[in-house]
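As a warm-up, study this chain.
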Amino acid sequence: MKTVVRAGLVAMLATTLAAPAQAANVKQVTSVCHAAGFSGTFTLRYETSGGYHHPLGSITTSGPYIGDSGTQSLRISYQDGLGTHTVYTRIGPATNGTASLPAGLAIPATARGTAATTFDNGTTSCVATVPIT
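Now compare it with the structure written out below.
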């Protein structure tokens, strides 16, 4: 009787602790841009699962800025045999720090994806671009 109970517990634990069929692979890529005395750093975090890359969030730092004149824009896109497809665009005031991206963004893993952030301090701008592969 003990053997049957023990075997049942082992089977339940094995089922509960089984690894997921395909765990997500999270990557982080960074690019830096410079223009005169101005610079920006852009980092994108994304996971790859189910044949797609899913952007998760970004980290930006840039400066110097003149007053409140700074802006940043982010464009995430990919190219395939049919052309270039924009997945996400954000334009707003310059913010240094971490930002989440909306859920559901997807880039086919077979396509060539890029994310580009344009940093602008009112007089000078530069673009930092990272590959999504």
